[in-house]
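Incident log, structure service

09:12 report received: a user says their structure output differs between two submissions of the same chain.
09:20 pulled the input from the user's history:
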Amino acid sequence: MADDSGRAPRRLRSAAWFDAPGREGILHRSWVKNQGIPDDAFDGRPVIGICNTFSELAPCNAHFRTLAERVKRGVWEAGGFPLEFPVMSLGESLMRPSTMMFRNLVSMDVEESIRANPIDGVVLLAGCDKTTPALLMGAASCDLPTIVLSGGPMLNGKFRGRDVGSGTMLWQLGDELKTGAISEADARAAEVCMSRSAGTCMTMGTASTMASLVEAMGVALPDNAAIPAVDARRNTLAHLTGRRIVALVRQDVRLSQILTRAAFENAIVTNAAIGGSTNAVVHLLALAGRLGVPLTLADWDLLGRDVPCLLNLVPSGKYLMEDFFYAGGLPALLRELGQRLHKDAPTVNGRTLWQNVAEAPCWNRDVIFPFERPFKPAGGIAVLTGNLAPQGAALKPSAATPALLRHRGPAVVFETIEDYDRRIDDPALDVTADSVLVLKNCGPRGYPGFPEVGLLSLPKKLLERGVKDMVRLSDARMSGTAGGTIVVHVAPEAAAGGPLALVEAGDMIELDVERRRLHLDVSDEELARRRARWTPPPAPEPRGYLKLYLDHVLQADRGADFDFLVGGSGARVFRGNH
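09:34 re-ran on a clean worker, output below:
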């Protein structure tokens, strides 16, 4: 039977399971029917996998059961057959040693779950930081029709008459506890005020950044980024997502047709304008690698360097994601970026990016600034190079102290995060406000797992003197909720023998963000002598996934993906039998 275009309908991938002749078809249909599925569900309906990262151990994603049911409504309504499946969930607030160590594992879980099952298209339910890139990376390796549905941010935090941002307030509370500015009772009272609804951090942390970027890349429906998790419109968006994925399957619109080079360039420009997380650099490099899209660390600087920050949102500004939504959300901000975007980039709703946002209104110019009068002139991610970071390092200018963007100071060196924890508040620590705090061995291999420890709290004795910021650098990552003059992702990392491993206390370090320079003022001859003495730090006893991770993880400038996962392999099943 032909479709409306007169062409014979494309044979669905799921037909190899549910339309198989004889015993095989009976087997596949019969066991699914034990869930009360009617027989006509198997008569050519597109099977939509709903990839759910629900977990009560990942509080940001704890409301996803409701979202999944709303997606299913839309799928059934559009003539599809929804089947929900779980994958490992990554919750920043509880997992140790770092969720980043498991991002690639989840991507493998997603990829193999999609490939091994009768799935024609997939909806990715993503929320907490690493779930969005992990799910997209796995889906990209299979390259089926795909839509992302983010869980949405929490409502604004409210504490003693003021708005407070999750994550960002956490760092502030830690410093205030350290100096005695607040009591433990005050901090306990702030906890529920900071996290008062379901959803992700309502600051421009990594979760909000990635939710914004998937919308800017066209792989989520408009308004995905900012609708609060508990707003009824988030459920409506889930319903519409369920409808739309069925249409994408029928039109055979693959993920690779949406996530083109133009889409990645739009994401980099958008990240600059929203003051997005440095973590987006690592995740988009890894995602591009799965798709074979050429993207390098240098592209982040080239494309985003002269894009101003338009969004007055914590940690770069003062407002929160709920305010962003009421002001017009990402569509209103993208409209301001029109001159810098690939306007004809396709999106999952069948329209171009510009068709989606050309008429988007802005309701609050104190939240979303016009391009001609930006909130801050410097957005984007500054990619630094020099003899201290031959393969690059990252800094977010919009969250830094302007006076520190050109700085020269002596290094105060911490070999590990435990070394830092032991010594940072020692009154005898030789440190001044001009010092540069240097943390080693927290990169992809060194920790292992590439943790978010780059936001080094300042020494107690300096906090008590009113010092608010210092230059800090490491091979670690930092939370998108963090602010300060912080250099992260130094590559190669110390544990891999990068120059960072050779820094010693008192060495002079020069940071010049305008010139994109990070320099260790030590002669090549002296560095050679130090390298001859250097030995790699001891690694934990490798077994299981940790061994796989240590053997195959790439450096930060390549997205910290596994070397054997770069490039996709499609959704073909290699053998047909059980």
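09:41 both user submissions now match this output. Likely a transient worker issue. Closing.
09:42 reviewer note: The radius of gyration is 24 Å. Residues 157-196 form one domain.
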